[in-house]
Each structure stands twice: as C-alpha cells, then as structure tokens.
Amino acid sequence: MRVALYVTCLVDGLAPAVGKATVRLLRRLGCRVEVPAGQTCCGQLHINTGYPAAALPLIRNQVAAFVGYDAVVLPSGSCAGSVRHQHAALADRAGDAELAAAARELAGRTYELSEFLVDVLGRVDVGAYYPHRVTYHPTCHSLRLLEVGDRPLRLLRAVAGLELLELPAAETCCGFGGTFAVKNAAVSTAMLADKMRAVQQTGAEVCTAGDASCLLHLGGGLARLRAGVRTVHLAEILASTA
Hints:
Elements: E1 2-5, H1 9-14, H2 16-28, E2 32-34, H3 44-48, H4 52-65, E3 71-74, H5 77-85, H6 87-93, H7 97-107, E4 110-112, H8 113-120, E5 133-136, H9 140-145, H10 151-157, E6 163-165, H11 180-183, H12 185-202, E7 206-209, H13 212-225, E8 230-233, H14 234-239
Parallel strand pairs: 1-2, 1-3, 3-4, 5-6, 5-7, 7-8
Helix pairs in contact: 5-7, 6-7, 12-13
C-alpha cells in the first residue's frame, strides 16, 4: 500500500521524532511510506480564527500534494479532523465545486494514525514493546470530531511490557485548544492544572496522546511542576521495539 505521511506543522517544526516514529511504524507493517514535499499547513488555524479565505489556497495545495496515494495518514486527530470535516465545506461556501469535490475525495482516504492501523491495516498488535506505566489522554478532536473511540486504547493494551493506567476524567479537555490557550490563557491554565492532577493521580511514568499539540501543552506544565511524568506521542510508543 502506498501511503503518504501528512506530517503536520507542529510535528515538522517542534516534534520531528513523532513523524520519524510514524514512518518506522508504518514501514514495519508493510506500507510504502512517502512524505510529499509539497505539503503545507492544513489551514485549520486560519479557519478556526476567522480567516477562511486564507485557508483556500492551502486546501488547493493539499489536494495536489496528495494525489495518487492509497491513504494519507496523520499522527494528529486535530489536523485529520480539519481535512475530513472542514475542507470540503469551506470550498462549498466559497462556491468552488471542483475544489469541494477534490477535498471530499482526499478526505475519504485520510486517516488519523490509530484509525489507519485498526480499520485499514486490521492491526491491534503492531509488535511494539514499551516497558513503562502509561496513561492515555484522548484529545478533543480525535474523541469528538473523528470519534476514534477506543482504538488507541486497544493498540496500547497490545503493547508488550506496557501497563495501561486509567486516567480520571479522561474526556476532559487539557486546555490547549490551539489559539484558545493564547486568547484565554487563564482558563487554559486552570484546565491544564486539572488535567495534570489527574495524570499524577494515575502514578504513570508517561502520558500519551495522539496529538503533539496537546502533549506539548501537557509536557510543558508537567515539566514546570517537576512531576516526574513525561509526554510521549502514541506513534513513538507503537514504533518502539525490544
């Protein structure tokens, strides 16, 4: 299967190890993985902050960048949600029927990582080994927009050596929310404090999630507390072997 990695802005700029881990994992499972050089921002930032017109050129670029691939995989529920649920609707509102049709076609073969592993490859046990106590934070877009459900948990339960610990109030937002954390810093910080308390209650060594954005937010807070808990992306855990 010819697969394109949609690496996302945050992974490319701030968490490149997540992209590398995703490539290692998919190749280990038999996929022919490429990283199209023409990809750019998905435009979610522009759309969510009220500049939809600025996102249209980005959507046109993405449609062209990912032509010909059997699947497009993202280590991000947030960006996958934008491709699947925002792009075609935005093109429709702009009156560009051709772009809307192309965006829908791309959306139909675009997957968040856990969806791709479980639903397309039919794999839950991906041959990973990670001997640590881990708790999982279900990020808002993956949980509510993509409805990935328990797929990440099923993948984690199959990792050899991993002890999965239940996160209290798991479905509560961590407080990041993209520009929400900038525009509403006090509220965001209060939400982060609640989430960090929940993570610490588990006794986990590692907090994982499917979005680098939420993990950067959580990881910064936990580091400032010297909590002894580190954040690791789901892809990095699944790519780990003995």
